[in-house]
Amino acid sequence: MRWSKPRPENPWPQDMAIRVNDLPHNLTLLLFVRQAWSIAPDMDIPPLSPEPDCGQSSLPKSADVDTWDHRWRTAWNQAWSWYEIEDPTHHPTPAEMREFTDSSQELNPFVPPFWTQQYGSEGLDQGAYQAWEQRLMPKFPQDAEPRSLQELIPAWKSGIDTIIVLPYKGYFAQRLTRRHLAVSAETRNNPEQYSRALRENTP
């Protein structure tokens, strides 16, 4: 979001642009997989809110539970590593998105890695996943950033230009890179908590 025309009564800096990724599909899919298959239970990941109904999802029998657990942990780490190299100025073409489907390739700075690119939809109830994502969509307020503008401006000046919203229960805030701040939907929905998240992650 950005204000294109300066107005004396508008406190939003004219050159401040903030991206809000309020439905990061690559991450929500991984969270759904973990919940549906009951893997990686020791990972420091907050409970999901709302908790998904995983439908007919079940751990595939094409590999044992330890193998799927290891694959998921690797994919989760790759998903977060992608933010270190992301290029927000580029809009990928369909050909570029297809180019990086091989997990042996390096991460594509234009397209995040997706679980289904490597493992397909085996063991996943796609309808249940899509229903859960639909439940996530109404939760995001459009005025969250203006409401916490006093804390957002210094956060932006410190380098933050992207907010990643995750379906976690309760307060959650973690600065991933100089540019990226991850928060829970509940945190962004609450003006006091969102201001706290911005303040605590600004040097």
Would you give an account of this structure?
There is one protein chain. The protein is of the alpha/beta class and 203 residues long. 39% of the residues lie in helices and 8% in strands. The protein has helices at 25-37, 65-81, 94-99, 115-119, 126-136, 144-147, 149-157, 185-189, 191-200, and strands at residues 19-21, 162-166, 173-175, 180-184. Strands 1-2-4-3 form a 4-stranded mixed sheet. The relative contact order is 0.18.
Largest sheet: 4 strands, mixed
Question: Level of helix content?
Answer: 25-40%
* DSSP E strands, number: 4
Q: H/E series, N to C?
A: EHHHHHHHEEEHH
Unreliable parts: 1-7, 100-104
Widest sheet, order of strands: 1-2-4-3
Count of helix runs: 9
Helical/strand content category: alpha/beta
- Rounded radius of gyration (Å): 18 Å
- Strand residues, percent: 5-15%
Mean pLDDT: 88
Shape: globular
Distance between the termini: 23 Å
